[in-house]
Amino acid sequence: MLNSALTQGLVVSIVDDDPSVCEGLQDLLNSLGVMAETFQGADAFLQSDRLDQTACLIADVQMPGMTGLELYDHLVKSGRKVPTILITAYPKDADRAYAMRSGVQCYLLKPFSEQDLLACVERTLVSRPAAGHCC
pLDDT per position in the chain (135 positions), as tens? Predict the structure, then answer.
């Protein structure tokens, strides 16, 4: 169970090209009192008004256009190091190693348990910078 003090007023953005994954994760997080927004791809997220309000990003590694890893790299290079959880049904050791070296908080394999996801979200929110962004 997530600590409600950690999640109050925060937005978790979910970026995945699979609508059922977006809906399921949003329903789970909303049921726990976490405000979750979904986006069908990296471009939709980057063009949204939620970018600066996102305290935690959950992104699929494999998406058409910009991948989850590319999205994370893009955010870091633009000065927005949003705490990120990557999810994938097609794990690659090289992707996982790169992601973890780059500062990604968690790399979860689909299907993952609710408990594993919630533990990652909580760890991400606890470790996020107080001002919402860091270098």
Answer: 555 545 566 899 999 999 999 999 999 999 988 899 999 999 999 999 999 889 999 999 999 999 999 999 999 999 998 999 999 999 999 999 999 999 999 999 999 999 999 999 988 887 765 444 332
- Beta-sheet strands, E only, within the chain: 11-15, 35-39, 54-60, 84-88, 106-109
- The residues near 99 (Cβ < 8 Å, ≥ 6 apart) are 61, 69, 72, 86, 107
For residue 129, how many other CB atoms are within 10 A of its CB? 11
Domain definitions of the chain by residue range: 4-126
Q: Does domain 4-126 sit in CATH 3.40.50.2300? A: yes
CB atoms within 10 A of CB 9: 7
